[in-house]
Write a structure and sequence with these properties.
Distance between the termini: 13 Å
Structural class: alpha+beta
Strand order of the largest sheet: 1-2-3-4-5-6
Radius of gyration: 14 Å
Number of domains: 1
Largest sheet: 6 strands, antiparallel
Length: about 130
């Protein structure tokens, strides 16, 4: 898929999980506060994370709209999803961890329900998505 990192842009240790690819193919790009990183924004975030956290092997795939959290795959934790607080000092960046993409996806869906309920109450205005098409 052209909006994702291509094979030559990905580290040797990483391949997109099939369940992630199914989500992308289904067009599930926005999950409440979470938004998949695609195109230019994915590349910008990947390059930025590599500069800010050079000792980590991170492949980002989603960002939160309401803070600087980024969902990533981590070279040191195969199969797991790490939530990294971008722009934190190195060593303080890890906010959360999920044992698999499926468990992150389920948590993101719950976040979306909570986020949507807040929006119905008039709280938590949602900024427009940063999707390049």
């Amino acid at each position: 898929m052209k909006d994702l990192l291509q094979r030559e842009e990905l580290p040797d240790w990483f391949t997109y999980p099939p369940e992630f690819m199914r989500m992308v193919e289904a067009g599930e790009f926005d999950l409440g506060p979470w938004q998949l990183l695609l195109g230019k924004w994915l590349k910008v975030r990947q390059e930025g994370l590599a500069k800010r956290f050079p000792d980590r092997g991170l492949v980002p795939f989603a960002r939160r709209l309401d803070d600087d959290d980024v969902a990533c795959w981590d070279r040191e934790k195969p199969g797991k999803v790490c939530i990294v607080h971008d722009f934190a000092a190195p060593g303080w960046e890890v906010r959360d961890e999920y044992p698999s993409f499926a468990s992150w996806h389920e948590a993101a869906r719950q976040d979306a329900q909570d986020y949507d309920r807040e929006g119905e109450d008039g709280e938590g205005e949602q900024p427009p998505p940063e999707r390049e098409r």
